[in-house]
Amino acid sequence: MSESVLIGGLNVDKVSRDSLADELIADVDRDLERPRLVFSVNGQGISMAATDPEFLDNIRKGDLRHADGMSVVFASRLLTRTPLPERVATTDFFHDAARAGEPKGLKFFFLGASEDVVRRAYYAAKDQYPEIEWVGFRDGYFSEDEEADVCRELVESGADVVWVGLGRPKQEAFCVRNAHRLQGITWMKTCGGLFDFLAGNNPRAPQWMQSLGLEWLFRTMQEPRRLLRRYIVTNAHAVWLFLTRSGRVARRLEP
Ligand code: UDP
Known about the structure:
- By secondary structure, the protein is α/β, with parallel strands linked by helices.
- It contains twelve helices and eight strands.
- The chain has a six-stranded parallel β-sheet with strand order 4-3-8-7-5-6, with helices on both faces. Strands 1-2 form a two-stranded antiparallel ribbon.
- Helix 8 (170-178) links the parallel strand 7 (161-165) and strand 8.
- Helix 1 (17-28) crosses helix 5.
- The chain is globular and about 45 Å long.
- The mean pLDDT is 94.
- Uridine-5'-diphosphate is lined by residues 112-114, 140-141, 165-168, 170, 192-193, 195-196.
């Protein structure tokens, strides 16, 4: 179990990209009663947790939360005594997990996005990591009534890791609501727009923008209609939450 630090009202685990990949590999050999729910936290998620009680409840139920946004890492450096080691962007961690998983022939399943996007993402990733066992994919547009069937498909695939890219707050809610149906799977790893990146729909921001914590700006420039309001509102709110709910002075969202 990793230590955590309070940032913007949420406990964020002090993991690095390497240590998280090591945890995954170690967990695959454990006999877990249910999958571990591995979630990520960025400014948007911190803002959502403070305004949406259901999302807060679900994200708290995650077994591990890593810092997906550079702003969360900056906040930990400025406002706490025990900073996070680094940003673990899920779009990078996917590749860490695939590289670490290849020698063990880990089994990956992709759940989320449209049928066309997830198919293209799946085959692109399969080409890149041929030693991973690719056990299936499914689009992310299904109703709650269909979830039992979706879970059966996931379990029957034999997946070790299901990458769950349904967007917030749906992906966290899906994982929490269905964990009891997913015995045999090691990790349910939420991954937002990962499949859009892997399918080549969305380019990643240049490294200098990522290092300055400006990946959100790059994404907003690509999709201003969808993301401008999201990021302007949630970034301002997140900064307020960082300042008032981090480290020792924090008023904690979590009990
Ligand atoms: N999505 C989905 N089912 C839904 C709603 C969204 O599979 O009911 C997918 C959507 O197609 C996209 C992803 O979830 O691939 C969300 O991407 P977004 O960029 O919003 O996530 P972020 O990376 O910002 O968390």
